[in-house]
């Protein structure tokens, strides 16, 4: 099968963190979320162990618990960001990331679905044996696949981690056992408008080394 590269590349280069364009009023059918999870389970995992679970939170009260945890760690985080922006001589008021992140923090409880990818078990300590890298590498591709599957169905997502300092509280409310690790919280909603564009990123030639560290020129 020939892929339509204009479609696949568009998907891969325009799946942005959607915060201000989440449609808070339009319910997201559970079947659509299941489709995204179904696609995410095709992601690679070391030993094909698939030690992931998705806890989908669409109950208003429980979304409130997650959002409350998020906001408590967002407040000091964004204060530090504002200070850093001001110190660099820029205006925090007109900073688009601060602006959109603050919006998301404020409305998080109203986002139709908060998807919490979880791992069975705990990450191994960082060591030189690759176990930690294998653990994370066996989980996070599935999370990104969920985001891509969502985008191709008209759903916006934003990968967030700020509720995790209060993961225990959220675990208590959602009945997550202490043998399970929450990996993120992915607010998911239909997006309004669809003019997402590739973001400014470092050039591939700059971040690609050929055969030796920092050898960026294929011809040399
Ligand atoms: C591991 C990880 C954690 C993140 N945590 C948050 C978060 O807690 N809140 C938030 O608003 N965005 C969060 N983001 C989204 C990033 O800010 C976003 O991906 C980045 O600014 C690039 O923007 P783009 O995805 O629209 O290109 C996170 C992204 C990743 C990959």
Bound molecules: flavin mononucleotide
In the CATH hierarchy, the architecture is 3-Layer(aba) Sandwich
Spell the H/E element sequence: HHEHHEHHEHEEH
Main sheet properties: 5 strands, antiparallel
Write down the domain tally: 1
Distance between the termini: 36 Å
- What is the CATH first-level class name? Alpha Beta
Q: Indicate the overall shape.
A: globular
Count of β-strands:
5
- What is the assigned CATH homologous superfamily? NADH Oxidase
Instruction: Give the oligomeric state of the chains in this entry, treating copies of one chain as homo and distinct chains as hetero.
Output: single chain
Protein model, in words:
The protein has 220 residues and is α+β, with helices and mostly antiparallel strands. It has one domain (35-193): NADH Oxidase. The chain is 42% helix and 11% strand. It has 8 helices and 5 strands. It has helices at residues 5-14, 30-40, 60-87, 96-107, 131-137, 140-151, 167-174, 204-207; strands spanning 52-57, 113-120, 155-157, 180-182, 186-190. Strands 1, 2, 3, 4 and 5 form a 5-stranded antiparallel β-sheet that branches. Helix 2 crosses helix 6 (140-151), helix 3 packs antiparallel against helix 4 and helix 3 (60-87) runs antiparallel to helix 7. It is globular, with a radius of gyration of 19 Å. It starts with a helix and ends in a 13-residue tail after the last helix. The relative contact order is 0.20. Residues 16-17, 19, 97, 101, 104, 158-162, 199 line the site of flavin mononucleotide (FMN). Flavin mononucleotide is lined by residues 16-17, 19, 97, 101, 104, 158-162, 199.
């Amino acid at each position: 099968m020939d892929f339509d590269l204009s479609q696949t590349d568009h998907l891969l280069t325009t799946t942005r963190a959607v915060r201000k364009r989440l449609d808070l009023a339009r319910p997201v059918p559970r079947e659509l979320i299941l489709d995204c999870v179904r696609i995410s389970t095709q992601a690679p995992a070391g030993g094909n162990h698939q030690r992931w679970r998705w806890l989908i939170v669409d109950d208003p009260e429980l979304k409130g618990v997650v959002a409350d945890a998020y906001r408590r760690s967002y407040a000091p985080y964004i204060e530090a960001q504002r200070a850093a922006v001001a110190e660099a001589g820029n205006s925090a008021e007109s900073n688009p990331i601060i602006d959109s992140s603050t919006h998301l923090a404020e409305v998080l409880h109203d986002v139709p679905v908060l998807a919490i990818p979880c791992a069975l078990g705990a990450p191994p300590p960082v060591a030189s044996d690759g176990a930690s890298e294998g653990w994370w590498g066996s989980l996070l591709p599935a999370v990104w696949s969920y985001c891509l599957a969502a985008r191709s169905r008209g759903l916006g997502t934003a990968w967030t981690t700020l509720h995790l300092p209060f993961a225990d509280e959220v675990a208590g409310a959602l009945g997550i056992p202490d043998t399970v690790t929450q990996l993120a919280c992915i607010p998911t909603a239909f997006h309004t408008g669809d003019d997402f564009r590739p973001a400014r990123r470092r050039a591939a030639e700059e971040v690609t080394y050929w055969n030796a560290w920092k050898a960026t020129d294929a011809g040399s």
